[in-house]
Design goal:
Elements: E1 2-5, E2 10-15, E3 18-23, H1 34-49, E4 55-60, H2 71-75, E5 99-103, E6 106-108, H3 110-117, E7 120-123, E8 128-130, H4 144-152, H5 154-163, E9 167-168, H6 169-175, E10 180-181, H7 187-199, H8 203-215, H9 221-248
Parallel strand pairs: 3-4, 4-5, 5-7, 6-8, 7-10
Antiparallel strand pairs: 1-2, 2-3, 8-9
Helix pairs in contact: 3-4, 4-5, 8-9
Length: 259
């Protein structure tokens, strides 16, 4: 069953532990007006608060991921709220669960920020990233200037931020902006397949490792390692011995990762 939010501009599909959130304004390349942005925030809060939802997928309907903020709305005198800087913004802070972006077509301007908010980005060969709002004088207020350098490095981030140039799928994979490339038209299906795989792992260790990776940016190396140890305690007590026993009993023979 599909849930509809924001007058149908946001859709939510659930399949077991995987929740797929769909940007559904294909006529506008899924550019987000204020209603859509609030709907996305509501959808992500619902995903975060659902104990049965383990991994999320974010996808844009109609062959585009997200073309950023709706400039027609902005040009008509309607200001937009910062998606990352606002208390209720959809991109305010990382979720406590993994989120995968399935990217086909444009992920530009604020749409780039939406993609960067996700933990992983799967692309097909139609994917295009870019700070295309550079030409219109619209600044980034979606976390891009913070998250992009952390993902691709300061030099590559400055190249994208200052020039507004486009980055295609192959270059995105090469510089680490995209996690992996899939066959054309399969981004959503492959992202959902990957999400199901991740959802099948013991959750405590996976989520604690993810959290440690994010929190390490705000700490020096020694403090970050100390925090890693703190976060690992629950998994060590509740999952590690069980998993080690399965290995000792023969699971994962010959390096198999599927058992």
């Amino acid at each position: 069953m599909t849930q509809s939010l924001a007058s149908g501009k946001i859709l939510i599909d659930r399949a077991g532990p995987v929740t797929t959130v769909i940007l559904n304004r294909p006529q506008a390349r899924n550019a987000m007006d204020n209603e859509t942005a609030h709907g996305l925030a509501e959808a992500l809060r619902a995903f975060a608060g659902d104990p049965s939802a383990r991994v999320g997928v974010l996808w844009g309907a109609g062959g585009a991921f997200c073309a950023g903020a709706d400039l027609k709305e902005l040009g008509g005198g309607q200001d937009y709220f910062p998606w990352a800087g606002s208390a209720g913004g959809p991109l305010r802070a990382p979720l406590d669960k993994p989120l995968i972006a399935a990217i086909e077509g444009h992920a530009c301007a604020g749409g780039l920020g939406v993609a960067l908010y996700c933990d992983l980005r799967l692309v097909d060969d139609t994917a295009v990233f870019g700070v295309f709002s550079r030409r219109w004088g619209v600044p980034m207020s979606d976390g891009t200037t913070v998250r992009l350098p952390r993902i691709v490095g300061q030099g590559r981030a400055m190249d994208m931020l200052l020039t507004g140039r486009s980055v295609g799928a192959d270059e995105a994979v090469a510089i680490g902006l995209a996690s992996r490339k899939v066959a054309r038209g399969t981004a959503r299906a492959e992202a959902e397949r990957l999400a199901a795989t991740i959802a099948g792992f013991p959750p405590i260790a996976m989520t604690s490792d993810r959290r440690s990776a994010y929190e390490s940016f705000d700490r020096d190396e020694a403090a970050a390692i100390e925090r890693e140890m703190e976060l690992s305690l629950a998994a060590r007590r509740r999952e590690a011995q069980t998993g080690a026993a399965r290995f000792a009993a023969g699971a994962g023979r010959h390096g198999s990762f599927k058992e």
